[in-house]
Known about the structure:
Blueprint: H1 9-13, E1 27-30, E2 36-41, E3 45-46, H2 58-71, E4 77-81, E5 96-100, H3 102-111, E6 115-120, H4 125-138, H5 144-156, H6 162-169, H7 173-181, H8 187-194, H9 200-203, H10 212-225, H11 229-232
Amino acid sequence: xxxxxxxxxxxxxxxxxxxxxxxxxxxxxxxxxxxxxxxxxxxxxxxxxxxxxxxxxxxxxxxxxxxxxxxxxxxxxxxxxxxxxxxxxxxxxxxxxxxxxxxxxxxxxxxxxxxxxxxxxxxxxxxxxxxxxxxxxxxxxxxxxxxxxxxxxxxxxxxxxxxxxxxxxxxxxxxxxxxxxxxxxxxxxxxxxxxxxxxxxxxxxxxxxxxxxxxxxxxxxxxxxxxxxxxxx
Length: 233
């Protein structure tokens, strides 16, 4: 079961799929909140600038590729329309920017799919980042560094408070605050977290150490011994 969120993924993308009819221009119908379901050519979808995910596990991506080759894509990608205009001024087919589902898109390309199911939403930049972040948190796919960087963008670029971020992603304010604080650690430690060598709980006590060299030394010891978060404290 997916864990509940303050603004759940279903509420964000709209899932009123009952009574869907095939329409013109490959539209499959409209869902709640103005969402449109359709099949879109893989070549028409570009990666957006608001993807919080940085690291992609090659083995998991290969597994997903095999699953898609066998079963197709079960859950649609979330995109927003960016249009496409030819030199003659005519629409050269709809173009889309990916909001959520980058692993599925990469696996679909690797599997040789020509078209994928998508949910088309009308979103501004902030809403695009929020939706992408929530979708990944629902799946528990982001590491703490990726989450922290996404929270940081919401604070710095879109001027959201930590309370507002917490409400949007269904987390507590201390969770948001602690995740942001991890970004204060030296880059080598952030790399260890991103690679799964260190958990957020193991890394958080390192913030109490003033020297960067001492922080890194302690981080390596924690990882080497496999101390629990409590043990790290």
